[in-house]
Amino acid sequence: MNFFKRGIISIVRRPGKTAILLTLIFVLSNIIAGAISVKNALVNTEDAILDKMGVEVTIQYDWDAIYNNPVGKVVVPSITAEMVEKIGQSEYIKYYDYSINQHFEARDVKNYYSDYSYEGNGWFSLTGGQSTTLRDAENGDITIKEGRIYTQEEIDSGKPVLLISDKVAQLNALNVGSTVTFLYTLYDYSDIIVYKERAAVDGDIGILPVPIEPKIIKTFEFEFKIIGIFTAKPVLYTDRDGKVIEQDSPLINTVYTVNRAINACVGEIQQEMQAAGMSDGGAYTDATSAFVLKHPDDVELFESQNKQYLPEGLIFVNNAKSFDSIRTPMANVEWISEIVMWVAVGATILIISLLVTLFLRDRRHEMGIYLALGARRGTIATQILTEVLIIALIAVSLSVFTGNLLASNMSATMLENQLAEEQKSQAQDGDYGYRVAIDVYPGGGYENNEDRISTEEVMGLYKVSLDAKTVLFIYLVGMGSVLVSTLVPIIYTLRLRPRQILM
Questions:
Q1: End-to-end Cα spacing for the chain
Q2: Core-most of 168, 260, 298, 357, by most CB within 10 Å?
Q3: Residues 100, 259 contacting (CB under 8 angstroms)
């Protein structure tokens, strides 16, 4: 009879000891499996949040440096496509985009009143693009409801096409195919203030400024065609009391077009200004860029590598801090799960070793007889090891599912509490909620510090589930722990001579 059959018979003939060993391994394996499931779930969640938030680095104006330069002359540097393309070659970048922004007043089109705009003032932020994928759509900030995004041919040719929000479209009865005319009035402000002497009632003489209407040099009209309508995702943030507040997105009054279409409009304005002998400083485009990095830890390396391409007055700004504010509580839970796992592994090795040692003491007579009859020590060791591993395999297999279920319930509560504590800390510091990737100058030309990811969204991404990697790791750690805990007492027992064992 071979060692495997003897092992099976031994397991069947000792139901009490088998049940005890199975129960202990099952309990300990549940802890190990749960800890591993939590750790892998946190890693997957971090990756999902990373994809959702994006680790963005943008180029922004350093206005302090611009206005306080040693020369004393205010020079606003330009963010050029060439500059962005050079920086975009960095190995740390996942992808990048370049956008030109300008503000225009629309004729007979009102903007939508929101938390970020005045009612019906008719001013819109035109955000250009040079990619057939809208960054805001990729981030989930907007969803295309009707129509389409501009094509590569429209990007290259600078065709005046638009995407507007559904709320602006509904307010103004606009549809896909409708046209919107944007206006830009060029004024001459050189005589904006005149002075007129006036005798006061008491006989005092004062000189008072009297405002007059500026002269209109020219009113430009730019016609754009609507090709798509989008829905802007509401902004969620947490107040000081921990209450989640929902507000309208700042992107509601943003219209998307292509960079060259905006450049064409601005170029026409600048040409007229130059002809009138005016400075074109008021007509320069507000250019923005976004470099989405592969990992938040690469931010410093990326910025130091590409700082050379930025002229004086331009700086890098990143949202790594926003990602860290989420990663910190997740790291705390991950650290706890690792501690639990290694404690469980240590407990498994200790407890199972003691238990197997006790069981072997009861079987010393049996092993002594095997040795006296000429059986090899390796064969006996293999039989005992087989018995324990068969029981362990059953216990670990069961714990894969039960441990995952246990981890899902307990870890979710733990993570939510950690996030709540972090949010409370941020609220005390005046920073409410978790920031999603910084979209510079959306919907009105201001940095989007309100677009945030809530605790609910983080928890929605957190899923404790079984995948091949998780299951394999559970089996490796669980069975490995049992193997180590079994080998130690076997080696200790079988090193004795048959006479010593039988005594």
A1: 26
A2: 168
A3: yes
Task: Check: CB of residue 102 under 8 Å from CB of residue 258.
Answer: no
- Per the structure block, which two tokens stand in for 253? 């009054």
- Residues 365-374: contacts with CB within 8 Å, 24+ apart? 365/501, 365/502, 367/493, 367/494, 367/501, 368/498, 368/499, 368/501, 368/502, 369/502, 371/497, 371/498, 371/501, 372/498, 372/502
- The pLDDT tens digits for 259-279 are 999 989 988 888 888 887 776
Most confident of 72-81, 85-94, 190-199: 85-94
**Radius of gyration, alpha carbons of the chain:** 35
Which amino acid is it at 420?
A
In tens, the pLDDT along 388-435 reads 888 889 989 998 888 888 777 777 777 777 777 766 665 555 444 443
Cβ contacts of residue 273 below 8 Å, gap of 6+?
186, 279, 280, 282, 283
Cα–Cα distance measured from residue 478 to residue 34, given in angstroms and rounded to the nearest whole number: 11
Residue with tokens 């005798």: 199
| Cβ atoms within 10 Å of 443's Cβ, excluding its own | 26
Taking each continuous run of H as one helix and of E as one strand, the counts in the chain are 16, 16
**Is-contact 440 101, C-beta < 8 A?**
no
Tokens of 319: 């949202």
Which pLDDT band, with edges at 50, 70 and 90, does 53 fall under? Answer: low
Average pLDDT over residues 11-18: 76
> Does position 140 have pLDDT exceeding 80, yes or no?
yes
Distance CA 125, CA 144 (A): 18
Compute CA distances 181 → 178, 224, 277, 377, 445, whole Å.
10, 6, 27, 92, 20
